[in-house]
Automatic annotation (TrEMBL):
Family statement: Belongs to the NAD(P)-dependent epimerase/dehydratase family.
Gene3D superfamilies: NAD(P)-binding Rossmann-like Domain (3.40.50.720)
Superkingdom to which the source organism belongs: Bacteria
Name of the protein: NAD-dependent epimerase/dehydratase family protein
NAD-dependent epimerase/dehydratase domain boundaries: 5-233
Pfam families: Epimerase
Amino acid sequence: MAKKILIIGACGQIGTELSLKLREMHGNDAVVASDIREGDAELMQSGPFEIADATDAKLIESLIDKYEINEVYLMAAMLSATAEKAPMKAWSLNMDSLFHILNMAKAKKIEKVFWPSSIAVFGPSTPKENTPQSTIMEPTTVYGISKQTGERWCEYFHKKYGVDVRSIRYPGIISYKTLPGGGTTDYAIEIFHEALKKGSYTSFLDKDTALPMMFMDDAIKATVDIMEAPAGDIKVRSSYNLSAMSFTPESLAAEIRKHIPDFSIDYAPDFRQEIADTWPSSIDDSRAREDWGWEHNFDIEKLTTEMLEGIKAHAV
Ligand SMILES: NC(=O)c1ccc[n+]([C@@H]2O[C@H](COP(=O)([O-])OP(=O)(O)OC[C@H]3O[C@@H](n4cnc5c(N)ncnc54)[C@H](O)[C@@H]3O)[C@@H](O)[C@H]2O)c1
């Protein structure tokens, strides 16, 4: 059967580029974008779009019927920094939306589901360096608790009901086409914009805070790859560790200085420092590499060049 895809939360940082990539791969009409708000012009004009709230099960089901959807990418969520300001709202959005989709897959209304998890599933008791796939997970943020719980339910629905749900623990995703949605790694995007605009940046994370990061193209590639892989290759049905690079604000600033020699950075850590301190500084993603052939393309050097050139080109 031909693919008919619904993306929920399509206007966000990842959803926008994911929708465009899937439209390029499967045809514009095969990919229905949806969100509670309108997105950028390219997304809105390139294919079908519906305003839809991910927590409204009836409405989502009616879209699945209307467009004969067989694959859902559930990207809507409240992210780490924003969720700390509205814990109960974040919990409802992040959990209810997932249950609706898992139940529709259980009822065989859809065949395949992508649901993203995050490095936020880890906590202060997790080994920080080269964090293993299976390890201690005691997240301390609302966002992390919701993602860890979501992972358990994904695995449960797969084991109990045969639901084909696939998931990745994204690290901090860095891109220039769409603005980030309120995460703890957003500094690594803001820094490029400010470097080009002002030649300086005040980081909300301290200079030696190492976090796992990934350029958007790699994140999209991983998402497409895991969804295209034969079902039998997907052996982890909670969520896969995924990694490309790790860096600190200080090492990213040094990389930017290779392009903008006068660039200066100072540090004013805020509440996001506390969140970052509980997360891994690097990730062991060997299971993703072994099971479905994950390979990344972007390191810190390539990322820096792409970001600076991309922002300059995008601004005109
Ligand atoms: N960006 C990252 O660095 C990162 C890292 C780890 C995991 N993730 C996960 O990837 C997914 C996408 O992240 P993102 O960075 O694109 O987030 P984002 O905040 O940029 O986008 C989320 C989108 O969901 C929409 N949305 C919010 N509430 C909704 C609702 N009730 N119904 C429908 N849509 C709604 C928003 O309008 C927004 O367009 C999320 O699940 C996030 O937790 C992202």
